[in-house]
Amino acid sequence: MRIDGQKHKVRASHIAVGVAAIMVGGLMYVWFQVNITKMNYAIAREIQMQERLVEEGRLLRMEIEVLKSPGRLEKIARETLKMKYPESGQVVRLNE
After folding, report:
1. Three-state secondary structure call for residue 71
2. Global model pTM greater than 0.85
3. How many domains is the chain built from?
4. Taking the CB of the first residue and of the last residue of the chain, which one, N or C, has fewer CB atoms within 10 A?
């Protein structure tokens, strides 16, 4: 009887080790899935940030073009700086 009892204990310990291994494997799987989900969210946030920055860059380039426009600069020169076109006698041409 004693031999059978020891075999039974060995089988129970094998089952316990197997169950523990399955649990560890399951926990590792869940941990990896959680980390993958976190990384996917981080990637999505970075993609959104990139899209916002690209749009902001586009808007800033458009604003630069508007600010550099000759019509706007001429208006500022006339109204704010009180500048005007020179009269024909005020222009001096130099020989090239």
Report:
1. helix
2. no
3. 1
4. C
